[in-house]
Amino acid sequence: MKCLVIFLLFIFLNVNAEDLDIGGNLVLNRYFLFKDSIIPYPTFDEVYTEISLSGSNYKVFTSFKLRVWNRENVSFSQLSTFPVETYLYPWELYVKIDDFFIENLDLKAGKQRIAWGSADKLNPTDNINPFDMQDIFDINKRLPVDALKTTYYLPFDISFSAILSKFTPSLFGWDTFFIAQYSSDSIPEGFSLSKYDTIIYPEKKNFKDASFAFKLSGTVFNWDMSVSYLKGFYTFPFVDSINIYPQDTITPFDLNMDTYLSFPEYQCIGYDFAGEIFTIGLWAEAAILIPQEFTMRSKKTLPTGNPQMPFLTEERDTTILNTSYFRYTIGSDYTFKSNTYINIQWNHGFFYENSDLNDYMFFYVEQTFRSYKITLKGGIEIDDFAEVNNSYGFTTAFEFNIKPYDNIEFLSGISYFNGKEGTFFRRMKDVDNIYIVLKGYF
Asked: Which of 128, 268, 368, 374 has its CA 20 to 30 A from that of 386?
């Protein structure tokens, strides 16, 4: 990666200014919660900048994200500091070469986004890039990864891609809301996973932390389709082991909990297609995920009150992953002559679910006028079809968007979540909000 950075810097420093293409956007977010949230939820503003240089058979690209977090001062000592935190994220950084040594062979190397799947955001096969979950209301963002991608173009609109990528965990920005749910079944009864003491990363030597992926794509009767395979790691950590023990012999009922988390391996076989029937867009995407067997070990040492045997130790192994599971998304969209756009998708297995997969139906209706548009969107969750009345959740949002100038966009809306206890949308109830967003493009 260091050699690639030096190479890209050399290219950028040795080209004329008129050969560069510089662009980006500015996003200012403000969210107003309906009530005090039990979920810490900071917001951030973002400046995204990209620089690219294209030649006859190559492209050099780099981008950065500057995120300015807005936080509240919660103690007197913090009043002496400016209530913002600024982070600069180097984002993508890659070089792409067409006809690399041989005709029809393309090479793309560096930090990059490799998007797979034909569904709209809910992509069961899109597993190479981890999630960027710093914005709770836009959890479909992805992080670029260090990867080497080769694509060979065959006759009849067929292409074959091979990818080698480095493991990168998902990015969390506001405590552990999703991770707590993702691992909640792994925590002993009576305890909650309040912090993660140790993260165990995949071993780095001999490419043991690398992901390998292959994809065969083509077009048949104007329908785009692909078959894919991935061998990699979950990007959300699982609880590997828990050790609960007394802090000391003087206060044996005050317990410590040491938690270790790791990233299990898995394989994914995917298929997707997309096309049109009478101008109605249709797509489907499915993936079989085959996890490596993963067992969590828990050890509890608790006081007994018996002087003869003051402590009792219990050890237990719990299998977290051992069977394959199936995720899929089916969707359709259509634009009416009145400039009304409708998008509907059915999703089985949300991105963080791995055992008990739930079903979700999402809809998006947009009416466009001259300089503004109105959007109604939402979703319905069903955890158990046998008891729908006790296992449903829902969300809805109404949004107004106006674009007075080509490079200025303003939108405002309201989001609402509810449902039965235990559902995903019910857990989001505490972040019902009104939001205002200003976007500028350059």
From this structure: 268
Strands 265-277 and 58-70: unpaired
Reported as half-sphere exposure (CB side, CA atoms, 13 A), residue 263 has a value of 21
d(CA 236, CA 172): 10
DSSP states of 42-60: -EEEEEEEEEEEE-SSEEE
In sequence order, which residues have a C-beta less than 8 Å from that of residue 378 and are 6 or more positions away? 362, 363, 394, 395, 396, 397
At 325, which amino acid appears?
A: Y
Q: Which of 52, 124, 95, 39 is nearest to 327 (CA)?
A: 124
Enumerate the domain spans of the chain: 1-112, 155-334, 358-442
Q: pLDDT (tens digit, 9 = 90+) per residue, 421-442? A: 989 899 888 888 899 999 999 9
Query: What is the pTM assigned to this prediction?
Result: 0.86
Work out the end-to-end distance of the chain between its first and last CA atoms, rounded to an integer number of angstroms: 29
Please state the rounded mean pLDDT for residues 393-399: 96
C-alpha 199/C-alpha 187 separation (Å) is 16
144 CB contacts (<8 Å, ≥6 apart)?
91, 92, 93, 111, 112, 113, 129
Q: Who contacts 192 (Cβ-Cβ below 8 Å, separation ≥6)?
A: 180
What's the distance, CA 271 to chain centroid? 20
CA–CA dist 215, 209 (Å, integer): 20
Say if residue 68's pLDDT is above 50: yes
Predicted confidence at residue 72, as pLDDT, reads 61
Dist. CA 387–CA 212, nearest whole Å:
41
Q: Residue 340 — φ and ψ, nearest 5°?
A: -100, 125
DSSP per residue, 61-90:
EEEEEEEEEE----SGGGGGS-SEEEEEEE
Amino acid at 373: K
